[in-house]
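--- STAGE predict ---
source: upstream dedup step, 1 unique chain passed
mode: sequence only
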Amino acid sequence: MVDNKIINYVKELINQLNITDYIGILVYGSYVGLRSNKLSDLDVMIIMDNYNAQICGSLLINGIRVEYFIQGLQKIYDLIKNEINHNDLSHITKFVTCEILYDVDGRIDEFIKYVKILYNTEIKTSFNNEDKFSIFSINNKIEDLETLINEENFYSVYYVTLEKIRILYSKINGIIDLPLTKIEKIYSDDNFAKKYISSSIHKLPNKDFINLYLKCIKINNKMEMFNNLKKLYCYSFGKLDFDANNFSLKFNKKAPFKV
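--- STAGE serialize ---
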């Protein structure tokens, strides 16, 4: 339930933006999920009808940073359909855990119910040629890392490669994707994870993967970091019937290719 303080922040936001023809207002994020701290923003989505633009912005209202999006209803339907197709449930998670502050004709409630149906549908596992090419690319990045041990750009290549492993492992195993800024908290705090995911359908990676991943995100001796990354890579893809070192694939699509 949204308290009166949040309602007043949203009213002031609407006044400052001088918007009158909206059909719905949603609030979501840490303030709604009772996870807020002194660094938290209040997240607000203002939904319009027959609206092709997308506006995002930020305002400081009574000492609270309010981040807002102005979006058309059809556009957010299109957005979540695209996310389902790409196993990226970041916006869907927001809608599932949001609170409706305003709904002019019931269409916002209908939309949220539709999103919840999608959210509570099991993610299909997938391992196609594009995934194989991604493993091949990750394997090459790991080989590059070994030559970058004494270079300054080791860390940037390392953490990009780490996230490629996590995202692809999730896709192949039908695991819900999660926002990068919350990964460590979700992986290390069971109560936070349950509140954030809020569905018995979706699961986290198993404990072995989580433990290996948490070791990888620690800044340590470069060689130890490199060895941890190789262990995660081998764990994530080692049991697949696929050898990244002996792999050939013909692409019939135009550049740019995913690497």
